[in-house]
Structure prediction request, 648 residues.
Amino acid sequence: MKRRPWALGAVVAVVFLFLYAPIAWLAIASFNSSRSLSRISGFSLQWYEELADDSRVFGSLRLSLQLALSSAVIATVIGTLAAFGLRRAFPGRGLWTVLLSLPLVVPEVVMGVAMLGFFVKLAGVPLGFGALLFAHVAFSLSFVVVVVRSRVSGMDARMEEAAADLGASPFVVFRTVTLPLVAPAVVAGAAFAFLLSFDDVVISSYLTGVGSTTLPVFVYAQASKRGISPEIVALSTLMVTATALLLIIGVVVASWRARRAGSTAKLAG
Amino acid sequence: MTGFSPAEASTPDTFAPVEIGLHGVRKRFSDQVAVDGISLNVHEGEFFSVLGPSGCGKTTVLRMIAGFVDPDEGRIELDGNDMVGVPPYRRDVNTVFQSYALFPHMSVWDNVAYGLKRKKVRGAELEKRVGEHLELVRLAQFAKRRPAQLSGGQQQRVAIARALAAGPRLLLLDEPLGALDAKLRKELQIELMRIQREVGTTFLYVTHDQEEALVLSHRIAVMNAGKIEQVGYPEDVYERPATRFVAGFIGTSNILDAEVSGVDGGFVALTAPGAVNLRAKFAGGVSRGRKVAATVRPEKVHLFDEAAEPPTGWCVLRGVVQDVVYTGVSTQFVVGTPGGELVAFVQNAQRIDDAGAPGQPVRMAWDPEFTVLLESSDG
Prediction:
């Protein structure tokens, strides 16, 4: 069979166009001087300026960052402990493992209803940051457990025995061997939890209170109320850029670590 | 266990004082007994092997000495102090694992330094001792590499350096060459002997490879089903196996069911189907009429055709050649006899030309010095 490198190239180009054209259009439109989204008339930073003057945007951004950061920290701590707990054999371990990953497959709309019903209506947590924090920890926990567990259970227990054998107390074993080996997965799990929280619309939309709207919910609300305004386009462009930067930093750090450690430090996520 | 063999007598105390002593050690895992009451003394400076098939409990013995597993019963004494209940990190014992278990996130140098750092060795002294041990295993030029960048054999040498650098009283080696290919295994065997000679540390070596144990060890303990079958020098366990298990596990043995017919001078006379003048050295514990197993190693057996006459006084067994396997150095003859199929290894230097063809009647003969008497069955 004759190889046609150009044909493969064309397919790849179409796929990437399909993936990135809408985002590229978003970025271009955000610098448009006119209000129209279909006609580019000139370069302008006015939508970004208007965005900068909008205090609601900063309020939402602050809330989203606070929420993403705190829910990621809490979910990572609990999830990592759970992953270590699932390492040892105990009755019902299989059941607990399944239970911990079940939220991964429950539809978000259902999760949102359940969270609203339980945390707010039943437990009386007020809408807003508190309710959001509970909900975000609850749904990102499963992801952390899955990511960290794959690393923890793949770790050679002999490695920790070797450290103890060489004179390391249990705490020193954990600090010098266990933690450094699991760290990439913990970092990946934390990044995962952060992004999940920062991106979430569906569950958060049930739980936001008056004056405490997360950024994605704010964008969604604006877009559905008034249509896609240039400010929203500019804001979306900023969010895409921030997320992409985070991802690129993650990949660079991971490949740097992998080079340093030979082939052993594969990032789990 | 046996009434004939010099198994107990072949545990001489020619070495320095007992370094590690196991006394009536027993360990049971939920559904089975892994170690069934064993006692063992290893002397200072010895290269001591525990040899046995997989699942015989030898690794459990090693893990109990390291402190990863506590025995249910018995004492494990290091320099006379009972170690049971002492955690691994407070024992002056280091382990070389079969899977290497090197720390992948540390350089070779940091791996070797790990145990020394735990002992608060710092600065120039640390540099010196890590350097010495990397020299010892000839890996000084790889100090900055990560374990993943080394070959299997090199990784195992790092593991040996790491365990020795911590300065143990006793080095435990758990099938350290098990994951390597045959050629590399041979090279590392020689390397291990050299290292042990150089450092003089006591080595306790666990293996299922009988040849490895014979080559490396000063003494060998043969284990089966949680019990020690025999302890002795390599020559002892090979030439004078104490049990049928040892006779069959180490090398190949011909086993004939026989009955004691009397004691004649320094020899025990035996009767067996098809055998003439079957005798074994007298070692006590036999009585007329007792059922025994007479064993002889295949390389001790000579083959004679009808024309030739075996030396007088030798044990002779008639049979028919069934199979001939040429292996280069020697030829293996499988001979059908009234007592079953027996094997003879004949050096090709002294092989008789016409004793070769299957179907030919032959006489198997050997010096009665080489007949070893064992219990008639393992039960």
Q: What stands out?
A: The first helix of chain B runs from residue 58 to 66. Confidence is low (pLDDT under 50) at residues 1-13 of chain B.
